[in-house]
Amino acid sequence: MVQVHECVADPKKAQVEADIELLCQRGVYSEEKTSLDLGNARLAAGDVATIALWLKDNGVLTDLNLYDNSGKFQCCIGDEGAMALASALRVNEVLINLDVRRNKISGDAAQPLATAVLASSSLEIFGSVPLKELRANTLDKLALSGHALGVPEALVLAKLVEGSGVLKELNLRANSIGPTGATALADALKVKGVLKTLNLRDNNIRAEGAAAIAEALRGNEVLTSLDVRGNKIGPTGATAIADALKGSAVLKALDIGGNDLGDEGAKAIRDAVSGREGFELEIEEEAVRRDTNGRLYTYPEYVAFYGSDAPAAWAAAAHP
Q1: Under DSSP, is residue 37 helix (H, G, I), strand (E, B) or coil?
Q2: DSSP string for 113-170
Q3: 141, 274: one domain
Q4: 197-199 and 169-171: which strand pairing?
């Protein structure tokens, strides 16, 4: 077992080191003391508060994985743990890779955490978000489909997209950014940039997120392709996007199916793009199933993933 403490004069610091040593037994702590993997380690907010205190004085750890400590065995990092990490990041100058995905962090704590991540002089990767490359403007395409991104990651991405002069395609399909993440990305679209393709399929952005995207479309002069399929936006979200489309001649392709649009919402969308030559509209309500992670998938997507086992998996999957 790796020892994480030595002779420490400060009793409080000694207690933190002792607590960290116990926490390390739940995961993998490298011999070099540069990497700590506590993914799926049943951490609670108090455990993360201890880790945050440790990080403030730690000048060696570069890689910290706290992935998926959400709700298993009544444990949860949540907002309290996220706020503690944000505080630690403000003073830590060595951490390079931090992963807090799948930890039930809401907007109240996600914003301070995202702000701390963006202000960090050392972080290069946050979850699956390539901070270093985005800051350096070296990416013209970014595909993060199915990477379990949540609100904190979406807030960070939004700010980096806003400042990018080269990113033209962003694929965030099948994540969990929700209305808050969609709203942040919508704000980024309002800033003059070069993003032409945005895929937010299966992100549960709902009507609130759709309304924010719609508002951004009104002033955006670059985005040509938008995918918001499978987001439960309903008639209200569809109507908001339809109203925005009436004043936007730039968008050329829209996938808005699988959203329970109803007759009213579907008609509003079709009327908004009626007569627009070459416009590609996907609006059909496909049959979908929900997998064990709560994601919605069509049958062709099940075939692509499960192969010959697709019929059985489709039959066993829950209806949305």
Answers
A1: strand
A2: HHHHHHH-SS--EETTEEHHHHHTT--SEEE-TTS---HHHHHHHHHHHHT-SS--EE
A3: yes
A4: parallel
Domain for residue 3, yes or no? no
- 300 is in which domain, residue-wise? 287-320
Query: Considering the domain boundaries, does residue 131 fall inside one?
Result: no
pTM: 0.86
* 8 A C-beta contact, residue 59 and residue 95: no
Show pLDDT as tens, one digit a residue, over the chain (320 residues). Answer: 555 554 445 778 889 999 999 999 999 999 999 999 999 999 999 999 999 999 999 999 999 999 999 765 556 788 999 999 999 999 999 999 999 999 999 878 999 999 999 999 999 999 999 999 999 999 999 999 999 999 999 999 999 999 789 999 999 999 999 999 999 999 999 998 899 999 999 999 999 999 999 999 998 999 999 999 999 999 999 999 999 999 888 999 999 999 999 999 999 999 999 989 999 999 987 656 677 666 767 666 766 666 666 667 766 776 66
